Automatic annotation (TrEMBL):
Homodimer. GO terms for molecular function: histidinol-phosphate transaminase activity; pyridoxal phosphate binding. The lineage of its organism: Bacteria, Bacillati, Actinomycetota, Actinomycetes, Micrococcales. The keyword Acetylation does not apply. Pathway: Amino-acid biosynthesis; L-histidine biosynthesis; L-histidine from 5-phospho-alpha-D-ribose 1-diphosphate: step 7/9. This is Histidinol-phosphate aminotransferase. Gene3D superfamilies: Aspartate Aminotransferase, domain 1, Type I PLP-dependent aspartate aminotransferase-like (Major domain). Keywords: Amino-acid biosynthesis, Aminotransferase, Histidine biosynthesis, Pyridoxal phosphate, Transferase.
Amino acid sequence: MTSLDDLPLRSDLRGLSPYGAPQKRVPVALNVNENSHPIPEPVAHDIVASLARAVLSLNRYPDREFTGLRGALAQYLGHGLRAENIWAANGSNEVLQQVLQAFGGPGRSLLGFVPTYSMYPILASGTGTRWIAGTRDADFELSPATAAEQVRRAKADIVFLCAPNNPTGTPLSLETITAVYDATDGIVIVDEAYAEFAPDGAPTALTLLPGRPRLAVSRTMSKAFAFAGARVGYLAADPVFTDALRLVRLPYHLSALTQAAAVAALAHTAEMLAMVDDIRGQRDRIEQELPGLGYRPYRSGSNFVLFGGVDDPQATFEALLAEGVLIRDVGIPGHLRVSAGTEAETSAFLGALARVGRAGS
Ligand code: PMP
């Protein structure tokens, strides 16, 4: 049998494994922070009609500038943003990769504050960018002083701020973002993948964009919008920032089907986001009930909860899986992470955790 070692693979990729959480068929999957509510049927019909129209023109390449989609995303975000402020790609992972292709690369570096989204160092490695792991304050918080001091010291070309932070759920203040921006001449990305789950009226980095051309705010339709399977991520920034990303994107990177599906979904924003309140309610319920089971949840502005006090995370993970509930061991000793699901799924998780008990951990 031929093995990877037989191929002339880049030496920095040797020995690595592909990233990805287990994709297991289980009754209750709460491991990748998806929106577990299906798309409402009337919206699905509209998306199908939009796709059907797009199929008739699949002989042609799609709109390379995805103009309609950028306009729809700008309108959704508000804050005076226009189509030229918006960039999109196949998931925000691809948007972040394009940011590193444009602004990172060999001889350049990316700073993030761990524990944070585990794709950041992987995107760095894939683009030959040096990853710098910054640290956080107690309880995974990130104060303006802590962040700015490390930004000044690291002199990184790019800083990724995850707000709220995955896997900890920790919200991030606008003060920390402006302190970081002022402490660097480099690019600052605020990854707001979970922004819609923040309390109503919570601050967003979108308000900081005017006058800050090195700042970009990345978002996704994968979470609140229940559109993970369609792969649509996007960012908002100064139009000159999107010009930079155009230099590294593949031509026609967003298929006509993706554009058609996303535009149709965005025409139904209210219905698509109707479940966000429910999900926030289930997240709050998890936070309220975990202490009674002997665990310590962290404050979360997202659709998931990190909790500590787990003696043996792998054993608890396995015991829950045996009960049909899949959650996530994010590699933080003594901790596990669970996504807030439907009310029934959340009940299944809490019930299984109570049955598994601390003895199982
Ligand atoms: N950023 C964060 C913080 C995430 O948690 C995720 C998904 N887990 C992403 C970006 C990527 O999401 P997508 O590529 O589906 O838009």
